[in-house]
Write a structure and sequence with these properties.
BirA Bifunctional Protein, domain 2, SH3 type barrels, seven-stranded mixed beta sheet, 14 strands, five-stranded antiparallel beta sheet, alpha+beta
Length: 270
C-alpha cells in the first residue's frame, strides 16, 4: 500500500515556498524520499520524510534520519540550463545560502555534493544525491539540523545545532556571544526551496553568474585533492576550477584532468 502524507511535525508548520513548488508533502516514514519522487514524478514536487529508513548517499552509502532532528527532502526539478551535471552543484549552493540566511552559519561546498562547516573542522553538514529521470532531475538532500554532537553517527559529521553550539558563526555571529534559539527545520526547508528555484531560474548557461557564485563558495577549488575514481584509480593534484560542464579540473604532474565522477578527499596541509 502506498504511504500517504500525514503532515507530522513539519507538516504542522506552514512550509510555503510558493511558486513554482507544489505543496510540500510530509511523510511520517519512508524508505527513500528519492524513490517516492521517482515512483510518482511531477515537476516541482517536494517530498519530506520525518524518518527515512533506506536513504541513499553517493557510492551506495546509506543515509538514515532520526525523527525531528534533520531534513530528508527530495524534489523533482527541470535540468539546469548549464546541464544536468550542475544540478547537485546548484542545490549545494542553495543549501549554502539557506543556512547562512536562516542560521547565520557560513558553510563551504565540497565538489560535487557535500556541504561542510569550515569553523567546525570542515565537518559535513549535508549531502546531496541526484538521480536523472525522463521527467527531470531528482535532487535528494539530507541535512542535520537539531542533532546533538554526541548523537551524530560520525566524528566527521556535524549539525546546525552542534556547529552553532561550538561557536561557529557566519558573517555577523561572534564566537562566545550568547547563543541564538535553535534553528527551525521548516524555515531551513523553505529557504532551501526558495534559493534552489531562484538559482535554476537565474542559471543562464555555462560561464554565467550562477557558476561564478558556485566557484566562490566551493572550498575544493584551490586545494590539493585526491580523487578516488569509480574504476579504483586515485588521482592526486591541485583542484583548479570547475568547467562549463560541471567537471572538476585537477592539475597533476602529467597534465590537467576533467573529473566528472569520483569521491574527493581534501588533503590537509601539514
Amino acid at each position: 500500500m502506498r504511504p500517504k502524507p500525514d503532515h507530522g511535525p513539519l507538516g504542522e508548520r506552514s512550509v510555503t515556498p510558493g511558486e513554482p513548488w507544489l505543496p510540500v508533502e510530509v511523510f511520517d516514514r519512508l524508505g527513500s524520499t528519492n524513490d517516492e519522487i521517482r515512483a510518482r514524478p511531477r515537476t516541482w514536487r517536494v517530498v519530506v520524510a520525518e524518518r527515512q529508513d533506506a536513504g541513499r548517499g553517493r557510492l551506495g552509502r546509506s543515509w538514515t534520519t532520526t525523527p525531528g532532528t534533520g531534513l530528508a527532502v527530495s524534489v523533482l526539478v527541470p535540468p539546469p540550463a548549464s546541464g544536468p551535471a550542475w544540478a547537485p552543484l546548484l542545490a549545494g549552493l542553495a543549501v549554502h545560502r539557506a543556512v547562512l540566511e536562516v542560521a547565520d552559519l557560513l558553510t563551504a561546498l565540497k565538489w560535487p555534493n557535500d556541504v561542510l562547516v569550515p569553523s567546525d573542522g570542515d565537518r559535513k553538514l549535508a549531502g546531496l544525491l541526484c538521480e536523472w529521470t525522463t521527467q527531470g532531475v531528482v535532487v535528494g538532500l539530507g541535512l542535520n539540523v537539531g542533532t546533538a554532537r554526541e548523537d551524530l553517527p560520525l566524528d566527521a559529521a556535524t549539525s546546525l545545532h552542534a556547529a552553532r553550539a561550538g561557536g561557529a558563526s557566519g558573517s555577523s555571529g561572534t564566537p562566545g556571544a550568547p547563543k541564538t534559539p535553535g534553528v527551525d527545520r521548516a524555515n531551513v526547508l523553505t529557504a532551501y526551496l526558495v534559493h534552489l528555484a531562484r538559482l535554476l531560474r537565474e542559471d543562464t548557461g555555462p560561464s554565467g553568474a550562477v557558476q561564478a557564485a558556485y566557484a566562490a563558495a566551493c572550498s575544493t577549488v584551490g586545494r590539493v585533492v585526491e580523487v578516488h575514481e569509480p574504476g579504483g584509480g586515485v588521482l592526486r593534484g591541485m583542484a583548479t576550477g570547475v568547467d562549463d560542464a560541471g567537471r572538476l579540473a585537477v592539475r597533476t604532474a602529467e597534465g590537467t584532468y576533467a573529473v566528472s565522477a569520483g569521491d574527493v578527499v581534501h588533503v590537509r596541509s601539514r
